[in-house]
């Protein structure tokens, strides 16, 4: 079922339909008229208590969540090694026995748990030569198709968005005037092009947390679609400024004078998300979240319960059920499965 079909059954107001449809296309390379987007909408509302587009923010930013998790882990005796990139997962006779760091240090372990996406984990760290041809092919066939970019702005002052008072800027603002606008934006991606009028959602975190910017100034962060990882006839190095300009044009339309407030602009393309954060093809969910890559098929049919065909190697990231989002369910479920498995051997 598509978002178009779902919304046709319930709503007539086009601005409302567009706002609701946003949750059906977030971080996927599909428009609201594509089959399966209604499922994405439902997934994005798990745990919201029945409230549509309910958003919770972490005081002080997501860095505070990381710090809290770090403190909790250390209280249980966990040793954390930061800036310790893994070069490969050590496999002996089909079983993971540890990892080798990029500095050559070897760390032995009874089990290895990866929060990286399956392509990075198996093709990059394990190696296809240690996988069965069938499993290797399934990993290769996982669809990533990243089409999301981020554009960050440092602003001299708070822009005046038509119809939005400052209090509303504490949440997520979606520029979704209609389903046809969003579908047209997605059409460009089908042909390897950047959307002329990108669909986007943005936050102004400095409205909630004044410490995020100097006094009187603000920062705005936009999540932008559609910016396909695979461009046709050009590359992202040449197209970076083009994307930034198109995003600024859209924001200027809804906040006249926006360009005059820009002190600095940073564009993170899908290529940047891949190289900087290890997100293959810039996909924030470690694999497209459509029905053919969900439930017992996420990430593959033979690694859908956090266990993998490589002994003592487990997955716990967004590539596993129940997919992406800051809900931590993947890690919780994986931990329970790992404990059960280790207790049984």
Automatic annotation (TrEMBL):
Principal location class: mitochondrion
Coiled coil location: none
Gene Ontology molecular function, alphabetical: oxidoreductase activity
One Pfam family matching this protein: Amino_oxidase
Subcellular location: Mitochondrion matrix
Domain Amine oxidase residue range list: 41-327
GO CC annotations, alphabetized: mitochondrial matrix
Annotated function: Probable oxidoreductase that may play a role as regulator of mitochondrial function.
Assembly, per entry: Interacts with COX5B; this interaction may contribute to localize PYROXD2 to the inner face of the inner mitochondrial membrane.
Protein name: Pyridine nucleotide-disulfide oxidoreductase domain-containing protein 2
